[in-house]
Structures are given as structure tokens and as C-alpha cells.
Amino acid sequence: MLIAQNQENISGRAQDLAALEATVRDAVREQPVWDFHTHLYPPSFGTPFAGSGKASDPKGLMLWGIDELLTYHYLVAEVFRVVTPQQLSYDDFWRMTKREQADHIWKHLFLERSPISEACRGVLTTLQRLGLDPAERDLAGYRQWFDEQDPDRHIDRVMEISGVSRITMTNAVFDDNERLRWLENRHVGDDPRFAGVLRFDPLLRDWPAAAAQLVRWGYPVNKTLDDQTVEQARKFIRDWIDRVQALYCAVSLPPDFRYEGLEDPRTSSTVLRKIILPVLAERDLPFAMMIGSRLRVNPELRDGGDMVGLADVASVARICSDFPHNRFFCTMLARENQHELAVAARKFGNLMVFGCWWFVNNPSLIDEITRMRVELLGTSFIPQHSDARVLDQLIYKWDHSRDLIANVLADKYRDVAATGWRPSENEIRRDVRLFFHENMSNFLGTPTP
Ligand code: HDL
Ligand code: ZN
């Protein structure tokens, strides 16, 4: 009798745990996500591939379709490992058309070797979720399908499939192609599906060059950070926050970025203290620091030529401590920085950790980092952003990450349930909403749209 009762209890508990896991997976799969960081644009910024015979713009910023997917800079870097520069020079590759580059990558990374890297697999997940069958390996057929699509309607389709409710752009004001589009048409960003972010890396990475640009753009600044320079640079940031209607401002910083305190004489620390953070505090906007990218270690690979390096979390902690009236998003590129960064977030409520960025946006590291963050931060972080550069990448980047985040949460809710505290479906969905939307909107201080 007792054995039968125990067996019944065990099977009952197993069924309940299975039901709990299913609830978690449904909640994660169904929750719309506000994508915190992408390099995506609406059609108003032009597109080099207009499909169905529409006017294309070779320097357009809206990238989408199979040839852009295949020539993603992650895959360019990977294909040069297989067909080395000694076999195909960088110049010969870059002289190819986009389609020829895509053919080259398809041949060497998909057909002649199995597409098992995360960036390769992502192309296949995307095709599959768009209803195109990867088993057919029919690049010509995929191209024909994309040719028949309308870019604007394709955005709606991709957002629907990927469960992305809003796309946050990266509006790089020091990029001439983008800046001129804003100056020519102040409504260029008026697409409700997209939110603006002001990105100004050179202000902190290369002040002298940035200052020279500001002078050319009508902001009379000097290389020395005198009062006039500070005022004019602040005006520049205010003008562009307004033009872009920025939700936050952002920079990527090199691994050797350091901030040693309010007396730190470094130019980057002085620009931060005197120019950037006062404007953001005045406008009540957060500042996103993405730290650890050493740019163009191999310039021949162009966007694919950047490298990762170990950053300094203590500098981030000092910034959060010295500027308590500012709010900071932060992500780091090195796997080795993730634990210390999560611990720093435990010390500062004005620090919101986000995403598994770029070289740690891989299943094994997303799992490791997300598990560690839940254990240290509970529900108080933003687990992921897509960093998509090609519209269709939203599909695979969110598909893969949702599965991985669900794996972690299923384990964590099971561990809690084992204590007798059984989270309800509403509580689980509430938590997932925080992870995918409300941690961002609350930290931004904007009402959930
Ligand atoms: O600086 C950044 O925002 C990075 O995400 C770079 O754009 C990088 O090239 C990238 O696309 N990573 O995914
Ligand atoms: Zn990015």
C-alpha cells in the first residue's frame, strides 16, 4: 500500500513538474519582446535590395534578405578561415558583388562543410521559420522568394514570427550615411515599429577626431575641454537626442577603457563627467556602455575585423557610484567579465545589465551567463538583445535565445517549486514580461507602449 502510494506521489510530482516546465516554455515563447539593441532600420532609410522591382538605394541602411543574411560579417570572418586570404585575397572578395560573396559563403560554409556554427545555423533557422525548406538547399529558390517580398510588409512578418514588439535602432550620428539621412528628412525615423538610440562612440574613443567633426557640423569646440567646448558639445548631444528622439544614448568602448574617479584626468573620463552624463541626467535618459570591443584588429575583414578584450568592471562600478543620478545599461564582450559585472549590478540599483553581446551570443555562453545572472540578480536584468544587422536575423536570434532562456527558467522554477513554493502561471508570465519588456521600459522611465 505504502509503495503504491509513494509511486502515485512520485508520478504526481513528475506530472506537476512537466506541467510547470510547459508553462514556462509557453510563457517565454509567447511573450512579445522589446529588442533592446539592434542595427536595424525601417525602409525610410533606404534599402540596397528592394525586392519586387522597387527602387533600391545601394547605400541604404535597411538590410534584409538571403544575400544579406549570408554575407553577415560573422560569416565573412568564418569563410576566410576556410578559403584563406592566400587562396582568395580580401580585395578579390570585396570586389565580388553581394550575390557572388553570398554564393562563395554558401558553397564553403554550407555545402562543402556542415553549417554548424551559430551564425550558419541562424540562417537555416530563419529560412525554416519563414516557411522556406532548408532541406532543399535551394539558394536560387530562396532568392526568388525574397525577390517577391515587399520590404515594409516583410518587417511586419519578421516581427510577428520573431515575437518582437518593438525594434530599438542604433543611430550612429558620426556615420555620414546615417547622419545625412536625418538632416535631409527629420521624419526619416518616424516608424512606430522602431525606436531611436543616439550612438556616439568617437566622443569617448577619439575626442580629437570627434571635436574636429563637431566644428565642421557647426559646434565650435576645441580639443581642450574648456567651458565653451563643454557647452557646445552638450548642445550637440541635446540636438541629436531630440532629432533621433533617443530612448537612451550608447557607446561601445574598448577593453582598456578606464574610469578612475571624479578627478580622473583622462579625456574620456572628463568628456563623460562634463559633457555626456550631465546632459543625460538633465534629460533623465540612461546611458548604455557596451565594453570590450577592440576595433579592426584585422581591418581587411571590415565589420568582421573587431576583437574581444577583457574590460574593467571596477571602472563601471566607480561610474555608477560617482553618478548616482544617472542610470546605466551595461554589457561586456568578454565571457570572463560576466560574473563580476553581475556582482556589480548587485551593488548599484542604477546599473542594468543586459544581453549576451556578439561573441558571447552563442548557446553555450547564453546558457552559462543567463543561469549565473538569474542566480545573482533574480528577475532584475535584461537577458538578451538581438544585435541584428539584417532584419531576418530577428527570427533566429530570438528563436535560439528564447529556447535557451526557457531552459534556464524551467530549471530555476523547478528548484523553487521543490521547496513547496509553486509559482503560478500568472507569476511566471509576469516575470517573463519583466525579462522581455518591462525591465527595459521601467529603467527607461517610459510607460509600456
Ligand atoms: O558595437 C556594436 O554595437 C556591435 O554590436 C557591433 O555592431 C558588432 O559589429 C556587431 O554587430 N556585433 O553583433
Ligand atoms: Zn551592436
UniProtKB/TrEMBL annotation:
Its EC number is 5.3.1.12. It is an enzyme of class 5 (isomerase). Coiled coil: none annotated. The keyword Nucleotide-binding does not apply. GO terms for molecular function: glucuronate isomerase activity. Keywords: Isomerase. This is Uronate isomerase family BH0493.
